[in-house]
Amino acid sequence: MNIILVGSRGSGKSTVGPVAAKRLRLEFVDVDVRIVEEAGKSIREIFASEGEPGFRRREHDACQKLRRLKNHLVAVGGGALVDPENRSLLCRLGKVVWLRAPAAVLWARVSKDPHTVFNRPNLTSTGGLSELEALLLQREPLYAAAASHVIDTESLSPIEVVESIELWYQANDAHAY
After folding, report:
1. What is the DSSP letter of 149?
2. pTM higher than 0.85
3. Strand order in 95-100's β-sheet?
4. What is the pLDDT of residues 31-43, one digit of tens each?
5. Is the dihedral of CA 64, 52, 38, 35 positive or negative?
6. In the chain, what are the domains?
7. CB 153: neighbour CB atoms within 10 A?
């Protein structure tokens, strides 16, 4: 069984993904990392040179390359599910786990993370908390529709999120296929 982690920037996908994959004996794939490696530049640089449409094309291509994965835990970018083809593919590929938190919590996390500040572009003209609020309004219904399981990460440590994924996986793995 594959697990697909979805959620907004700051939800913890890249932090908990590798740890959860190791504990569950799954291979870990971070789609954003693959995009950066293939492009040879950061997401911010991709946005600067190709715009959001260029990044979304790269993201779509990266998701298409996941088609034959088995026994993987995959973290996808916060906007990956906006593309209906990506959403359909990811839902067929595995069980989708939504890491959910309120915009204020997400903003507190990303504003403290130097990786985010230097490598991630603003996706709206406002940036900041208002950007996260606007994106969540658009994306939360997509996350909810795709999710097989939801973990509210607001008050959980990364290891508690990993443990929640692990318990859910163990309960569902026997019924997977």
Report:
1. E
2. yes
3. 27-30, 72-75, 3-6, 95-100, 149-152
4. 999 999 999 999 9
5. negative
6. 3-173 (3.40.50.300)
7. 26
